[in-house]
What does this fold into?
Amino acid sequence: MKLFALQFAAITFSLKLNIMEKKIIITGVTGQDGSHMADFLLKNTEHTIIAGVRRVSVKNHENISHLIDHPRFKLIDLDITDQANTEQVIAEEKPDYFINFAANSFVGVSWKQPVSHMETNCMAVLYQLEAIRKYCPNCRYYNAGSSEEFGDIVTVQQDENSQARPRSPYAASKCSARHIVKVWRESYDLYAVQGWLFNHEGTRRGEEFVTRKITKNIARIFNEYRTGNEIIPLQLGNLDAGRDWSDAEDFIDAVWKMVNQDEPKDYVIASDETHTIREFVEEAFNFAGFHRGECRWEGEGLDEKYYHGEHCIVEINPEFYRPAEVECLRGDSTLARKELDWERKSTFLDLVKKMVDNDLKMFNA
Ligand code: NDP
Ligand code: GDR
It folds into this structure.
Protein backbone atom coordinates (compact mmCIF):
# COMPACT_ATOMS: atom_id res chain seq x y z
CA MET A 1 0.00 0.00 0.00
CA LYS A 2 2.85 2.32 0.97
CA LEU A 3 4.70 1.45 -2.26
CA PHE A 4 1.57 2.12 -4.32
CA ALA A 5 1.15 5.53 -2.65
CA LEU A 6 4.78 6.37 -3.40
CA GLN A 7 4.41 5.33 -7.04
CA PHE A 8 1.21 7.38 -7.36
CA ALA A 9 2.94 10.44 -5.84
CA ALA A 10 5.87 10.04 -8.25
CA ILE A 11 3.53 9.85 -11.27
CA THR A 12 1.56 12.92 -10.13
CA PHE A 13 4.82 14.83 -9.59
CA SER A 14 6.09 13.83 -13.06
CA LEU A 15 2.85 14.91 -14.70
CA LYS A 16 2.98 18.26 -12.91
CA LEU A 17 6.48 18.95 -14.18
CA ASN A 18 5.62 17.52 -17.60
CA ILE A 19 8.48 15.09 -17.28
CA MET A 20 6.66 11.92 -18.39
CA GLU A 21 8.72 10.69 -21.29
CA LYS A 22 7.30 11.63 -24.68
CA LYS A 23 8.43 11.51 -28.26
CA ILE A 24 9.01 14.84 -29.98
CA ILE A 25 9.82 15.30 -33.63
CA ILE A 26 11.65 18.57 -34.29
CA THR A 27 12.42 19.71 -37.82
CA GLY A 28 15.01 22.37 -38.62
CA VAL A 29 17.39 21.22 -35.84
CA THR A 30 20.47 22.24 -37.81
CA GLY A 31 19.13 25.81 -37.78
CA GLN A 32 18.87 28.37 -35.00
CA ASP A 33 15.49 27.67 -33.38
CA GLY A 34 15.41 23.90 -33.81
CA SER A 35 18.82 23.49 -32.17
CA HIS A 36 17.83 25.74 -29.25
CA MET A 37 14.57 23.82 -28.84
CA ALA A 38 16.47 20.50 -28.74
CA ASP A 39 18.82 21.93 -26.07
CA PHE A 40 15.88 23.26 -24.05
CA LEU A 41 13.91 20.00 -24.10
CA LEU A 42 16.89 17.77 -23.32
CA LYS A 43 17.73 20.00 -20.37
CA ASN A 44 14.24 20.55 -18.97
CA THR A 45 12.31 17.36 -19.79
CA GLU A 46 12.82 13.61 -20.04
CA HIS A 47 11.44 13.50 -23.58
CA THR A 48 13.14 11.88 -26.55
CA ILE A 49 13.98 14.14 -29.46
CA ILE A 50 13.65 12.79 -32.96
CA ALA A 51 15.49 15.30 -35.06
CA GLY A 52 14.53 15.38 -38.72
CA VAL A 53 17.35 16.45 -41.04
CA ARG A 54 17.55 16.41 -44.81
CA ARG A 55 20.48 14.85 -46.60
CA VAL A 56 23.18 17.30 -47.62
CA SER A 57 26.48 16.57 -49.35
CA VAL A 58 28.55 18.39 -46.75
CA LYS A 59 27.30 17.97 -43.18
CA ASN A 60 26.18 21.20 -41.50
CA HIS A 61 25.72 19.94 -37.94
CA GLU A 62 27.55 22.82 -36.21
CA ASN A 63 24.54 23.75 -34.06
CA ILE A 64 23.86 20.18 -32.92
CA SER A 65 27.33 18.61 -32.80
CA HIS A 66 27.18 18.69 -28.98
CA LEU A 67 23.95 16.63 -29.05
CA ILE A 68 24.84 13.86 -31.47
CA ASP A 69 25.82 11.35 -28.75
CA HIS A 70 23.02 12.27 -26.34
CA PRO A 71 20.99 9.11 -25.52
CA ARG A 72 17.68 10.95 -25.98
CA PHE A 73 18.62 12.61 -29.27
CA LYS A 74 18.04 10.62 -32.45
CA LEU A 75 18.70 11.88 -35.97
CA ILE A 76 16.44 10.69 -38.78
CA ASP A 77 16.25 11.48 -42.50
CA LEU A 78 13.38 13.84 -43.18
CA ASP A 79 13.05 16.13 -46.14
CA ILE A 80 9.86 17.99 -45.34
CA THR A 81 9.06 18.66 -49.01
CA ASP A 82 8.77 14.91 -49.60
CA GLN A 83 5.24 13.79 -48.75
CA ALA A 84 6.06 10.06 -48.76
CA ASN A 85 9.03 10.60 -46.43
CA THR A 86 6.91 12.75 -44.08
CA GLU A 87 4.09 10.23 -43.95
CA GLN A 88 6.43 7.28 -43.37
CA VAL A 89 8.24 9.09 -40.48
CA ILE A 90 5.02 10.15 -38.76
CA ALA A 91 3.36 6.72 -39.24
CA GLU A 92 6.41 4.97 -37.83
CA GLU A 93 7.22 7.29 -34.91
CA LYS A 94 3.69 8.38 -33.93
CA PRO A 95 5.10 11.37 -32.02
CA ASP A 96 3.42 13.10 -29.07
CA TYR A 97 4.62 16.47 -30.39
CA PHE A 98 5.67 17.67 -33.83
CA ILE A 99 7.53 21.00 -33.82
CA ASN A 100 8.13 22.29 -37.33
CA PHE A 101 10.95 24.81 -37.48
CA ALA A 102 12.24 23.74 -40.90
CA ALA A 103 11.72 26.32 -43.61
CA ASN A 104 13.21 28.35 -46.36
CA SER A 105 13.64 31.16 -43.87
CA PHE A 106 15.49 33.89 -45.78
CA VAL A 107 12.98 36.48 -47.01
CA GLY A 108 15.50 38.11 -49.38
CA VAL A 109 15.86 35.07 -51.61
CA SER A 110 12.15 34.23 -51.70
CA TRP A 111 11.54 36.37 -54.81
CA LYS A 112 14.08 34.25 -56.66
CA GLN A 113 12.74 30.89 -55.41
CA PRO A 114 9.02 31.43 -54.82
CA VAL A 115 7.97 27.88 -55.67
CA SER A 116 10.46 26.29 -53.31
CA HIS A 117 9.28 28.66 -50.55
CA MET A 118 5.68 27.62 -51.12
CA GLU A 119 6.63 23.93 -51.10
CA THR A 120 8.82 24.09 -47.99
CA ASN A 121 6.89 26.60 -45.90
CA CYS A 122 3.34 25.68 -46.87
CA MET A 123 2.86 22.36 -48.68
CA ALA A 124 5.11 20.63 -46.12
CA VAL A 125 2.74 21.79 -43.36
CA LEU A 126 -0.14 20.20 -45.22
CA TYR A 127 1.76 16.90 -45.57
CA GLN A 128 2.58 16.95 -41.84
CA LEU A 129 -0.98 17.69 -40.70
CA GLU A 130 -2.50 15.11 -43.02
CA ALA A 131 -0.14 12.43 -41.71
CA ILE A 132 -0.81 13.47 -38.09
CA ARG A 133 -4.56 13.32 -38.72
CA LYS A 134 -4.21 9.77 -40.07
CA TYR A 135 -1.61 8.22 -37.76
CA CYS A 136 -1.47 10.15 -34.47
CA PRO A 137 -4.38 12.62 -34.09
CA ASN A 138 -3.46 13.33 -30.47
CA CYS A 139 -0.05 14.71 -31.47
CA ARG A 140 0.47 18.38 -30.52
CA TYR A 141 1.64 20.34 -33.54
CA TYR A 142 3.51 23.65 -33.86
CA ASN A 143 4.36 25.47 -37.07
CA ALA A 144 6.67 28.49 -37.06
CA GLY A 145 4.71 31.53 -38.16
CA SER A 146 6.25 34.95 -38.67
CA SER A 147 5.81 38.66 -38.06
CA GLU A 148 6.50 39.01 -41.81
CA GLU A 149 2.86 37.95 -42.28
CA PHE A 150 1.81 41.45 -41.07
CA GLY A 151 3.80 43.01 -43.93
CA ASP A 152 2.79 46.58 -44.77
CA ILE A 153 1.37 47.22 -41.37
CA VAL A 154 -1.64 49.42 -40.67
CA THR A 155 -1.31 49.64 -36.88
CA VAL A 156 1.69 50.77 -34.83
CA GLN A 157 1.78 47.47 -32.94
CA GLN A 158 0.80 44.08 -34.30
CA ASP A 159 -1.11 41.55 -32.23
CA GLU A 160 -3.14 38.37 -32.81
CA ASN A 161 -5.94 40.37 -34.47
CA SER A 162 -3.78 42.30 -36.92
CA GLN A 163 -4.36 41.78 -40.63
CA ALA A 164 -2.20 39.54 -42.81
CA ARG A 165 -0.66 41.85 -45.45
CA PRO A 166 2.31 39.84 -46.82
CA ARG A 167 5.01 41.65 -48.83
CA SER A 168 7.16 38.74 -50.01
CA PRO A 169 6.74 35.22 -51.38
CA TYR A 170 8.15 34.06 -48.01
CA ALA A 171 5.42 35.90 -46.09
CA ALA A 172 2.72 34.68 -48.48
CA SER A 173 3.86 31.09 -47.87
CA LYS A 174 3.68 31.57 -44.07
CA CYS A 175 0.18 33.12 -44.36
CA SER A 176 -0.99 30.14 -46.44
CA ALA A 177 0.43 27.74 -43.88
CA ARG A 178 -1.42 29.63 -41.14
CA HIS A 179 -4.74 29.03 -42.92
CA ILE A 180 -3.93 25.35 -43.30
CA VAL A 181 -3.12 25.02 -39.58
CA LYS A 182 -6.39 26.75 -38.63
CA VAL A 183 -8.52 24.68 -41.02
CA TRP A 184 -6.99 21.38 -39.89
CA ARG A 185 -7.38 22.40 -36.24
CA GLU A 186 -11.04 23.28 -36.66
CA SER A 187 -12.01 20.49 -39.08
CA TYR A 188 -10.29 17.59 -37.37
CA ASP A 189 -10.08 18.77 -33.78
CA LEU A 190 -6.26 18.65 -33.87
CA TYR A 191 -4.04 20.47 -31.38
CA ALA A 192 -2.30 22.54 -34.07
CA VAL A 193 -0.94 26.06 -33.60
CA GLN A 194 1.24 28.56 -35.45
CA GLY A 195 2.83 31.37 -33.40
CA TRP A 196 3.63 34.78 -34.85
CA LEU A 197 7.25 35.08 -33.78
CA PHE A 198 8.94 38.42 -34.38
CA ASN A 199 12.64 38.55 -35.33
CA HIS A 200 14.86 36.60 -32.95
CA GLU A 201 18.60 36.39 -33.24
CA GLY A 202 21.69 35.10 -31.48
CA THR A 203 24.99 33.34 -31.84
CA ARG A 204 23.47 30.56 -33.98
CA ARG A 205 21.82 32.99 -36.41
CA GLY A 206 22.50 32.36 -40.12
CA GLU A 207 25.13 34.66 -41.61
CA GLU A 208 22.95 36.21 -44.30
CA PHE A 209 20.43 37.68 -41.83
CA VAL A 210 21.23 41.31 -41.18
CA THR A 211 22.13 41.14 -37.45
CA ARG A 212 24.62 38.30 -37.85
CA LYS A 213 25.95 39.79 -41.07
CA ILE A 214 26.69 42.99 -39.12
CA THR A 215 28.35 41.33 -36.12
CA LYS A 216 30.45 38.92 -38.24
CA ASN A 217 31.66 41.78 -40.44
CA ILE A 218 32.46 43.91 -37.40
CA ALA A 219 34.72 41.12 -36.16
CA ARG A 220 36.43 41.06 -39.59
CA ILE A 221 36.85 44.87 -39.64
CA PHE A 222 38.13 44.83 -36.05
CA ASN A 223 40.75 42.33 -37.16
CA GLU A 224 41.69 44.42 -40.22
CA TYR A 225 42.35 47.36 -37.87
CA ARG A 226 44.35 45.18 -35.52
CA THR A 227 46.54 43.74 -38.26
CA GLY A 228 46.89 47.02 -40.19
CA ASN A 229 45.25 45.56 -43.29
CA GLU A 230 43.01 47.44 -45.71
CA ILE A 231 39.56 48.14 -44.18
CA ILE A 232 36.84 46.67 -46.43
CA PRO A 233 33.47 48.25 -45.56
CA LEU A 234 30.45 46.20 -44.57
CA GLN A 235 27.81 46.41 -47.34
CA LEU A 236 24.16 46.74 -46.40
CA GLY A 237 20.79 47.59 -47.98
CA ASN A 238 17.94 49.51 -46.35
CA LEU A 239 19.25 50.97 -43.07
CA ASP A 240 15.96 52.49 -42.01
CA ALA A 241 13.77 49.38 -41.84
CA GLY A 242 12.62 48.79 -38.26
CA ARG A 243 12.46 45.36 -36.65
CA ASP A 244 11.32 43.98 -33.31
CA TRP A 245 14.39 41.96 -32.30
CA SER A 246 14.78 39.53 -29.39
CA ASP A 247 17.17 36.85 -28.25
CA ALA A 248 16.17 33.51 -29.83
CA GLU A 249 16.79 31.66 -26.57
CA ASP A 250 14.06 33.75 -24.91
CA PHE A 251 11.47 32.50 -27.41
CA ILE A 252 11.93 28.78 -26.98
CA ASP A 253 9.94 28.36 -23.78
CA ALA A 254 7.15 30.50 -25.29
CA VAL A 255 6.83 27.95 -28.11
CA TRP A 256 6.91 25.07 -25.63
CA LYS A 257 4.20 26.76 -23.56
CA MET A 258 2.14 27.32 -26.70
CA VAL A 259 2.00 23.58 -27.41
CA ASN A 260 1.14 22.77 -23.81
CA GLN A 261 -2.02 24.81 -23.24
CA ASP A 262 -5.43 23.31 -22.48
CA GLU A 263 -6.75 24.59 -25.80
CA PRO A 264 -4.79 25.30 -28.99
CA LYS A 265 -4.35 29.02 -29.69
CA ASP A 266 -1.92 31.19 -31.71
CA TYR A 267 0.13 33.90 -29.96
CA VAL A 268 2.35 36.84 -30.88
CA ILE A 269 5.83 36.57 -29.31
CA ALA A 270 7.83 39.79 -29.45
CA SER A 271 9.85 42.34 -27.52
CA ASP A 272 7.27 45.07 -28.26
CA GLU A 273 10.10 47.45 -29.28
CA THR A 274 11.32 48.63 -32.68
CA HIS A 275 14.94 49.37 -33.59
CA THR A 276 16.28 50.22 -37.04
CA ILE A 277 19.13 48.50 -38.86
CA ARG A 278 21.02 51.80 -38.47
CA GLU A 279 20.64 51.59 -34.67
CA PHE A 280 21.84 47.98 -34.67
CA VAL A 281 24.92 49.02 -36.69
CA GLU A 282 25.75 51.90 -34.33
CA GLU A 283 25.29 49.85 -31.14
CA ALA A 284 27.21 46.87 -32.50
CA PHE A 285 30.22 48.93 -33.63
CA ASN A 286 30.07 50.76 -30.29
CA PHE A 287 30.33 47.47 -28.35
CA ALA A 288 33.31 46.47 -30.51
CA GLY A 289 35.16 49.66 -29.51
CA PHE A 290 34.26 51.87 -32.52
CA HIS A 291 32.62 54.35 -30.19
CA ARG A 292 29.67 56.38 -31.35
CA GLY A 293 31.48 59.67 -30.69
CA GLU A 294 34.26 58.61 -33.09
CA CYS A 295 31.86 57.52 -35.86
CA ARG A 296 29.60 59.50 -38.20
CA TRP A 297 27.15 58.99 -41.08
CA GLU A 298 27.84 60.99 -44.25
CA GLY A 299 25.95 61.27 -47.53
CA GLU A 300 22.41 60.27 -48.43
CA GLY A 301 20.49 57.40 -50.00
CA LEU A 302 22.70 54.96 -51.90
CA ASP A 303 25.73 57.19 -51.21
CA GLU A 304 25.36 57.10 -47.45
CA LYS A 305 28.43 55.83 -45.57
CA TYR A 306 29.47 55.26 -41.95
CA TYR A 307 32.96 56.42 -41.02
CA HIS A 308 35.26 55.70 -38.12
CA GLY A 309 37.80 58.51 -38.35
CA GLU A 310 38.96 58.43 -41.96
CA HIS A 311 37.93 54.84 -42.56
CA CYS A 312 34.64 53.96 -44.25
CA ILE A 313 33.26 50.99 -42.31
CA VAL A 314 29.74 50.72 -43.80
CA GLU A 315 28.48 51.46 -47.31
CA ILE A 316 25.25 50.84 -49.19
CA ASN A 317 24.93 48.20 -51.89
CA PRO A 318 21.58 48.34 -53.73
CA GLU A 319 21.82 44.57 -54.25
CA PHE A 320 20.64 44.17 -50.64
CA TYR A 321 17.43 46.14 -51.15
CA ARG A 322 14.30 44.05 -51.62
CA PRO A 323 11.63 44.35 -54.36
CA ALA A 324 9.11 45.12 -51.59
CA GLU A 325 10.08 45.97 -48.03
CA VAL A 326 8.44 45.48 -44.64
CA GLU A 327 9.30 48.94 -43.37
CA CYS A 328 8.56 48.59 -39.69
CA LEU A 329 7.42 45.94 -37.23
CA ARG A 330 6.55 46.14 -33.56
CA GLY A 331 4.75 43.35 -31.78
CA ASP A 332 2.27 43.43 -28.97
CA SER A 333 2.86 40.33 -26.87
CA THR A 334 0.39 41.26 -24.12
CA LEU A 335 -1.68 38.09 -24.61
CA ALA A 336 1.31 35.75 -24.44
CA ARG A 337 2.62 37.47 -21.34
CA LYS A 338 -0.77 37.15 -19.68
CA GLU A 339 -1.95 33.72 -20.80
CA LEU A 340 1.35 31.88 -21.25
CA ASP A 341 3.00 33.62 -18.32
CA TRP A 342 5.92 34.28 -20.66
CA GLU A 343 8.52 37.02 -20.29
CA ARG A 344 11.65 37.76 -22.30
CA LYS A 345 14.86 38.00 -20.30
CA SER A 346 17.27 39.91 -22.58
CA THR A 347 17.04 43.49 -23.81
CA PHE A 348 17.93 44.70 -27.29
CA LEU A 349 21.35 45.90 -26.04
CA ASP A 350 22.00 42.56 -24.28
CA LEU A 351 21.39 40.83 -27.60
CA VAL A 352 23.66 43.14 -29.63
CA LYS A 353 26.46 42.80 -27.07
CA LYS A 354 26.15 39.00 -26.91
CA MET A 355 26.38 38.69 -30.70
CA VAL A 356 29.32 41.12 -31.01
CA ASP A 357 31.27 39.49 -28.17
CA ASN A 358 30.69 36.04 -29.66
CA ASP A 359 31.85 37.01 -33.15
CA LEU A 360 34.88 38.94 -31.92
CA LYS A 361 35.86 35.87 -29.90
CA MET A 362 35.23 33.46 -32.78
CA PHE A 363 37.15 35.56 -35.29
CA ASN A 364 40.17 35.85 -33.06
CA ALA A 365 40.07 32.27 -31.76
P1 NDP B 1 17.11 28.65 -39.94
O1 NDP B 1 17.25 29.17 -41.33
O2 NDP B 1 18.22 28.84 -38.98
O3 NDP B 1 16.83 27.07 -40.02
C1 NDP B 1 16.01 26.50 -41.00
C2 NDP B 1 16.08 25.00 -40.88
O4 NDP B 1 15.19 24.41 -41.84
C3 NDP B 1 17.47 24.40 -41.17
O5 NDP B 1 17.72 23.42 -40.20
C4 NDP B 1 17.28 23.75 -42.55
O6 NDP B 1 18.11 22.65 -42.77
C5 NDP B 1 15.84 23.30 -42.42
N1 NDP B 1 15.23 22.95 -43.71
C6 NDP B 1 15.02 23.77 -44.77
N2 NDP B 1 14.44 23.08 -45.78
C7 NDP B 1 14.29 21.81 -45.35
C8 NDP B 1 13.76 20.62 -45.93
N3 NDP B 1 13.27 20.61 -47.16
N4 NDP B 1 13.73 19.49 -45.19
C9 NDP B 1 14.24 19.49 -43.93
N5 NDP B 1 14.77 20.57 -43.33
C10 NDP B 1 14.79 21.72 -44.04
O7 NDP B 1 15.75 29.23 -39.36
P2 NDP B 1 15.39 29.72 -37.88
O8 NDP B 1 15.82 28.70 -36.93
O9 NDP B 1 15.80 31.12 -37.73
O10 NDP B 1 13.80 29.76 -37.96
C11 NDP B 1 13.03 28.62 -37.63
C12 NDP B 1 11.63 28.80 -38.17
O11 NDP B 1 11.03 29.97 -37.62
C13 NDP B 1 11.53 28.98 -39.68
O12 NDP B 1 10.31 28.39 -40.09
C14 NDP B 1 11.44 30.49 -39.87
O13 NDP B 1 10.80 30.79 -41.09
C15 NDP B 1 10.62 30.86 -38.67
N6 NDP B 1 10.81 32.19 -38.13
C16 NDP B 1 12.06 32.61 -37.74
C17 NDP B 1 12.22 33.83 -37.14
C18 NDP B 1 13.55 34.34 -36.72
O14 NDP B 1 13.66 35.54 -36.45
N7 NDP B 1 14.56 33.50 -36.60
C19 NDP B 1 11.05 34.71 -36.90
C20 NDP B 1 9.78 34.17 -37.34
C21 NDP B 1 9.69 32.95 -37.93
P3 NDP B 1 19.53 22.75 -43.51
O15 NDP B 1 20.52 22.97 -42.41
O16 NDP B 1 19.66 21.43 -44.17
O17 NDP B 1 19.46 23.89 -44.46
P1 GDR C 1 13.83 39.48 -42.01
O1 GDR C 1 15.37 39.40 -41.58
O2 GDR C 1 13.66 39.72 -43.45
O3 GDR C 1 13.18 40.42 -41.05
O4 GDR C 1 13.35 37.98 -41.75
P2 GDR C 1 16.70 39.97 -42.24
O5 GDR C 1 17.69 40.01 -41.16
O6 GDR C 1 17.06 39.24 -43.48
O7 GDR C 1 16.29 41.47 -42.68
C1 GDR C 1 15.88 42.43 -41.72
C2 GDR C 1 15.84 43.80 -42.37
O8 GDR C 1 17.18 44.23 -42.66
C3 GDR C 1 17.18 44.85 -43.94
N1 GDR C 1 18.54 44.80 -44.49
C4 GDR C 1 19.22 43.70 -44.79
N2 GDR C 1 18.89 42.40 -44.64
C5 GDR C 1 19.82 41.47 -44.99
N3 GDR C 1 19.52 40.17 -44.81
N4 GDR C 1 21.04 41.82 -45.50
C6 GDR C 1 21.40 43.11 -45.67
O9 GDR C 1 22.50 43.40 -46.13
C7 GDR C 1 20.45 44.10 -45.28
N5 GDR C 1 20.47 45.46 -45.28
C8 GDR C 1 19.32 45.88 -44.79
C9 GDR C 1 16.16 44.05 -44.74
O10 GDR C 1 15.77 44.78 -45.90
C10 GDR C 1 15.07 43.89 -43.68
O11 GDR C 1 14.27 45.02 -43.65
C11 GDR C 1 13.71 37.28 -40.57
C12 GDR C 1 13.78 35.79 -40.92
O12 GDR C 1 14.28 35.10 -39.80
C13 GDR C 1 12.43 35.25 -41.27
O13 GDR C 1 12.50 33.83 -41.42
C14 GDR C 1 11.45 35.59 -40.14
O14 GDR C 1 10.17 35.14 -40.46
C15 GDR C 1 11.44 37.09 -39.90
O15 GDR C 1 12.75 37.51 -39.56
C16 GDR C 1 10.52 37.48 -38.75
User: Anything to note?
Assistant: The mean pLDDT is 95. Residues 138 and 190 are 7 Å apart (CA to CA).
